[in-house]
Amino acid sequence: MERTFVYLKPNAVRRGLVGEIIKRFEQRGIKIVALKLFWMTREQAERLYEMHKGKNFYNELIEFVTGGPVVAMVVEAPRVIEMVRHIIGNTDPLKAGTGTIRGEFALTVTKNLIHASDSKENFEREYKIFFSENEIVDYYLDVQDDI
């Protein structure tokens, strides 16, 4: 099984889309193994987006993601990195496909509702900013035999 890190940005929380987004993952057989609601600190945001430091959108992004509560999770399934990125759609909502989270609900590139790790390496780096190993719960999901 593969794992990935996902977090719902403040506008997803404020717009009441948390349940809808989680539902889309669960309906695909994706197992949530860690989940929390919290305010992201500036330090966490800067660590998460360190590769964008110096870019013209960096400060706006940091202010946005620290400006309200977020929901972070670690999810698990076969090929979950690829699957989650397919479900959420392109970073640019105008390029995101119909039926994707961003295609249906997002308005701008910066405020695109959701972030997901794009590789195993980034998952390993990103989830550790928000979760300790003992916060990840292993359990049997009934649909596991079907995936």
Structure in words:
The protein has 147 residues and is an alpha+beta fold. The chain has one domain (2-39, 70-136): Nucleoside diphosphate kinase-like domain (Alpha-Beta Plaits, 2-Layer Sandwich). Helices cover 37% and strands 19% of the residues. The protein contains seven helices and four strands. It has helices at residues 10-14, 18-27, 42-48, 58-65, 80-88, 101-105, 120-130, and strands spanning 2-8, 31-39, 69-77, 114-116. The protein has a four-stranded antiparallel beta sheet with strand order 2-3-1-4, with helices on both faces. The radius of gyration is 15 Å and the shape is globular. The mean pLDDT is 94.
Using brief descriptors, characterize the structure shown.
Alpha-Beta Plaits, 4-stranded antiparallel β-sheet, 4 strands, alpha+beta, 7 helices, 147 residues
* Low-pLDDT runs: none
> What's the number of domains?
1
Kindly state the mean pLDDT as a whole number?
94
List the helices and strands in order: EHHEHHEHHEH
Radius of gyration: 15 Å
CATH topology: Alpha-Beta Plaits
Instruction: Report the helical percentage.
Output: 25-40%
State the strand order across the main sheet.
2-3-1-4
Termini Cα gap: 11 Å
